[in-house]
Amino acid sequence: MFLKYIYLVLLCLILKLSIAQVYFNNRYDNFNNGDISTGINLFNGNYLIYGCAANNFSFYSLNLGIVNYTGTRIKNRTYNWGSNLIVPNINKCIINSSSYFTIGGTNFYKPDTSLVFAWKLNENLDSLEYHEFGFVNRTNQLNGIVKDSDKYIYMTGWVDSLYKNSDILLIKTDTSGSEIWKKKIGLPNYDETAWCIKTSSDGKLLISGNRRLHNNQATNGAFVLKADTNGAIIWEKYFPSNYGLAATGMVELSNGDIVAIAGKGFGSTISRYELIKLDAAGNIIFDKTYGPMADRAEAYSLIQNQEGNLVAAGQIYYSVNNSVNGLVYVFNQNGDSLFSREYAVQPYSQNYFRDLVQAPDKGYVFSGFISPIYANGGTGTQDIWLLKTDSTFCEGAFNCGYPTGIAEAELVEAGGVSVFPNPTDGIINIELNPDNYRHDVTVIKITDVLGKSVYTYPPLEGAGGGSLPQSINISQLETGIYFVSILQGNKTLITKKVVKE
């Protein structure tokens, strides 16, 4: 009986440890010089990070590391060949099994001559196999790699075409590293670059990136295409804007819809996060932008979390002091912004996010790098940066404004809730479908980012107020972010973020 009691106690402790939230905000240096993390994957219960390291032999060498759940780097390996520049792909590597993985990248032999590679390594970061591909005497660059089954690997990026324009590079190999075919995909007189590749639920290829008229940034913008496994295009969509940014990440939803994260341009120094949703046939469902019309925001990664919402990571630039902060947005599947937050490991320096994963404890780990600005008090060298938050995107055990009731948001949206305009200069309009909401028990509550209530209707929650107001005046509130919640009884049905300008 005593042993059974001890066993139960130990089991409870193990379960408690397994669900406890973990936080860290760390820098990792390799050669007291410039280091970059371009991607992160879950691997054997740890975090596999990959990027570039600068050393005495070359500006860029392939750097791999394994970090445990506490943020401690337990393995690190740097590969450099002669004087070549070795750069890994931006998007996820391939986790083949618990014992090895495959990463893609680019080996630059000269500034204008390079080949792409697929590199298989084991859990100790030892090299197992290395294969190169591409068009000879050209610049070939790899940004994405994916495996669609146990038989084939697809790689994508870009290749120059006779130094006149760039086309999408698409390569198919088997898992032993033998090339099956390689193709250039693009329109005459246009520059195209692929950044992300996924396999779709119907066995096709989804590719996203950017397109523009040759050397014309004013026509740059996101594109998304679908191709078969022979590289033939099924459909493609192009979203030009003034100095727009690439669609760097994609998610296929359970119903076959495709969501891509990009950046809508408003001139050479201004861009905003852009979320594009298409159906499986390529029809546009929505094309939305987010954030203030201020400095340049760039997204690099998009995942779907365990709650079904979409999480995008990138950064925002501030021209006033040349600083950069990591930037996170959370959207529901209707494209409504639920939450956003900025992060830094060294404030007033340049803090970049390049990728993220959702951790086993439902928190999030963001990978990128930090470049100190000495004029702003920055210290150290350019280092790898990893940030671990909890499931509400907080860096510690405090309230950072993440709204409650998000799980019900999409259902309520479908039932008919509209909050507009957003951003607003003071007036918020709220429309509720009377068939779905009982006005006598519905409460509207507005809170600030610290969770403090700044408005409720009815004034006493739960008192009942008959017809709800069609508009609310918040012009007296300070500029910032607020959360509008719809409650019935003690249950929060939906929370929407509103920006007060």
Write up what this structure looks like.
By secondary structure, the chain is mainly beta. It is built from two helices and 36 strands. The protein folds into two domains: 369 residues, Neuraminidase (6 Propeller); 95 residues, Immunoglobulin-like (Sandwich). The strands form nine sheets. Strands 6, 7, 8, 9 and 10 form a five-stranded antiparallel beta sheet that branches. The protein has a four-stranded antiparallel beta sheet with strand order 1-29-28-27, with no helix packed on it. The chain has a four-stranded antiparallel beta sheet with strand order 2-3-4-5, with no helix packed on it.
Secondary structure elements and their pairing?
Elements: H1 2-19, E1 24-28, E2 35-43, E3 46-53, E4 61-67, E5 73-79, E6 85-88, E7 94-95, E8 100-110, E9 113-122, E10 127-133, E11 140-147, E12 152-161, E13 165-174, E14 179-185, E15 190-199, E16 205-213, E17 221-227, E18 233-240, E19 245-252, E20 258-265, E21 271-278, E22 284-290, E23 297-304, E24 310-318, E25 323-331, E26 337-343, E27 350-358, E28 364-371, E29 383-389, H2 409-416, E30 417-420, E31 427-432, E32 442-448, E33 453-457, E34 471-473, E35 480-488, E36 491-500
Antiparallel strand pairs: 1-29, 2-3, 3-4, 4-5, 6-8, 7-8, 8-9, 9-10, 11-12, 12-13, 13-14, 15-16, 16-17, 17-18, 19-20, 20-21, 21-22, 23-24, 24-25, 25-26, 27-28, 28-29, 30-31, 31-34, 32-33, 32-35, 35-36
